[in-house]
Amino acid sequence: MARVMIVGAGGVGNVVAHKCAARAEFTDILLASRSVDKCEKIAASIGSPKVTTAALDADTVANTVKLIEEFKPDLLINVALPYQDLVLMDACLQTGIHYLDTANYEPIDVAKFEYSWQWAYRDRFKNAGLTAILGCGFDPGVTGVFSAYALKHYFDEIHYLDIIDCNDGNHGKSFATNFNPEINIREITQPGRYFENGEWVEIPALSIHRPIPYPEIGDRESYLLYHEELESLVKNIPTLKRARFWMTFSENYITHLKVLENIGMTRIDPIEYQGQQIVPLQFLKALLPEPASLATNYTGQTSIGCHITGIKDGKEKKYYVYNNCQHAAAYKEVGSQGISYTTGVPAVVGALMIVNGNWKKPGVFNVEECDPDPFMELLGPMGLPWHEVFDGVSPFEN
Ligand code: NDP
């Protein structure tokens, strides 16, 4: 039994609040975010007396500490933006509660994400006897659990990992991002990077792409991106010879993105406009549809999984594990699109792992450092069934 505080009332926050409300383990739920009206709308759609709401600017530790002291949660789920990660971790330490998020910290003025800032909290969480779970969405998140599960059950050594992420959905808008536009565009416009033979190889943004087959979908053009779980997986699975991340984008999306980039709309440095300082990407975010608003009439599905090659008992083995998620089914269940759903469900499964003791250990952890079995067991029943293919045809060469 636990009291949980959810910070962030966007697309993902909606899913997390719905799924927490449906679990008996969570007796009281506080949904807190900058715009309290969004929290209230979500709470009304859930209609449970367990859910209360509050306004919170989570950019300052003092605000967050005050609210935590009033509500007294056991655990905080951070589904606001990566900019708030450190403030929320500090607030958890000050008040003695556990922490979980879905995206690693990045400073607002540098488009750079890495785990170093959050890994630096390890000793403090350890000494306080508290658990912090980092990156517990789908990717990062389930992709790390999939990799840990493969290593635990099917491989002596993992050598090659290709994480493949396809959104074959259609929201009917000319251009929109499926999660926070600012974070999404910062991620995609930075140089690509992958790990090979002990080194990181950097490539110009979106310069390597190829068709990759996805189950029930078929071949889709997929772009090699740098994605945050690569950093922790390479560290935690030291036998990896190569680790890459691929994501699909439509031609329409890439064209819009290139134009926006060419005209300076994706810049994150402030510019002077009519006597005011504005950040072009933040202005663009204000114009684009909110991720949560895409859910109505979203058709098609997502498919995210891991292609893994390695050895077991001296023989080469191939393994593919994936989930497909229908946007319309997610909407019918909780009123969200598939990207929010595939992020929010694992966050709640991770929170349950802390509450039921399976992942409750002092320190700061990436998901692959925790036992994958209880997480995998709950993932399907919670809404994200997964499928395995053993020694099938891999689209990737070694
Ligand atoms: P949204 O933009 O829809 O929602 C973000 C929410 O955070 C909004 O409610 C926003 O409030 C709130 N917020 C922003 N700043 C603050 C602040 N200072 N204090 C309090 N609340 C704040 O984003 P999503 O729901 O799509 O994404 C949420 C998170 O999930 C992001 O960090 C994203 O990177 C991560 N994510 C992770 C994935 C994974 O697989 N691991 C995949 C997709 C997303 P307001 O409405 O006032 O702006």
From TrEMBL:
Residue ranges annotated for the Saccharopine dehydrogenase NADP binding domain, each copy included: 4-133
Saccharopine dehydrogenase-like C-terminal domain segment(s): 137-382
Protein name stated in the entry: Saccharopine dehydrogenase-like oxidoreductase
